Amino acid sequence: MTAFETSRNRNTELNAFLEIFGEARYPESTGPLAGMTVAVKDVLALKDARLTCGSKFLEPFHSLYTATCVQRLIDAGASIVGKTNMDEFAMGSSNENSAYGPARNPWDTTRVPGGSSGGSAVAAAIGACNVALGTDTGGSIRQPAAFCGVVGLKPTYGRISRYGLTAFASSFDTVGTFSRSLEDAARALEVMAGYDEHDATSAQVPVENYSQALNQDVKGLRIGLPKEYFGEGIEPDVRRLVEAARAKLQKAGCKMVEVSMPHTKYSIADYYILTTAEASSNLARFDGIRYGRRAGGEDATRYATLEETYRKSRTEGFGREVKRRIMLGTYVLSSGYYDAYYTRAQRVRRLIREDFVRAFERCDALLTPTTPTTAFKLGEKISDPLAMYLNDIFTVSANLAGVPAISVPVGLDSNGLPVGAQLISRHFDESTLFRLSKEIHVPLIPE
Length: 447
Fold this sequence. Notes:
This protein is an alpha/beta fold. The protein folds into two domains: 3-262 and 366-440, Amidase signature (AS) enzymes, CATH 3.90.1300.10; 265-353, no CATH class. Helices cover 34% and strands 14% of the residues. Strands 1-3-2-4-6-5-10-11-9-7-8 form an eleven-stranded mixed beta sheet, with helices on both faces. α3 (118-125) packs parallel to α4, α8 (267-282) packs across α10 and α8 (267-282) crosses α11 (338-359). The model has no long low-confidence stretch (mean pLDDT 95).
């Protein structure tokens, strides 16, 4: 069964795709990625395809151009199989905020696949593609990768161009990949990485041969175990399997080093102040005038004022979680509160980044759980935003610091659900992540 057939046959059950393409969309190629199939999170532009961002606001919108990272894959010979489901505007940790219904976890369809890139995680897990593109603002690749039992890579901020990515929080958003194999993740990153003149935040840093890194041993590498990531709240099976991964690295010749990252406890609060502030600014462009949903359709006389058109369009077009984050962000940026919240949060962000700098003076990479639990039930946390936000407690710090991180499946818990371990390395040192990941990767395929 081809990737295109798999995506169609299982989509009714799992709701991983919002749009599925035919096999003839791209001709056969002899490029370096010839034969590779790719699913694209519906927050990345693909010319003439839908670009909904999981929102009713953009339901009728079709992109006029293709994102740089997607175009580089196409130019290298990859075939795009479809656009995947996601939390609206990438705001969520369960895919339940999608305006088109949640994607479902292929290991247990009563459970969430994680978010916001849930559809991409599911697509990779069931073999509907070799690689699925996602975005990671605070864990939106690594958390669903852990929940669905696949490899989820968040590169260094600036490693992959954001041109063609609909922004949620511009200083956090990072394009990355889901895949069953480390080899496919490495090959895709080699093609997508690198400077792009269309994105001023893309880094002019040489792109390494990540595939070659998979053949290098890890003897002598120092692995930091941050004590703040191994406290209370971790399910016993998660702790057990991450400890087993640590033992594998130690057996392969790595040295274990305990490190402290004291500002980790502020990361969730810091993240939700800064990202909502950026979201408030970025989503102001969705006004019902230039593109997307307009309340009252094309009847320009239906509402008396421009402000009323804005208000009605946004009320109808945005979901509850998006509205919540816009309001939070507007509040922390408002007069009288800017210094108390936003300015202070930027200072804390610097302290969190310095924690990583100091840690990497003593080690080459960090090993942590990706998530404190395995995939939770659909509906279990949707009415409790704080409980939902805390699911990203081990992932947001890497985004605050801009460092690369990867979630690798390390086994199944006692209920048969995947568990992921997270590795974090220095800026632009994705090669070390690949070297270490191969030592702990346990391939998992849902039935």
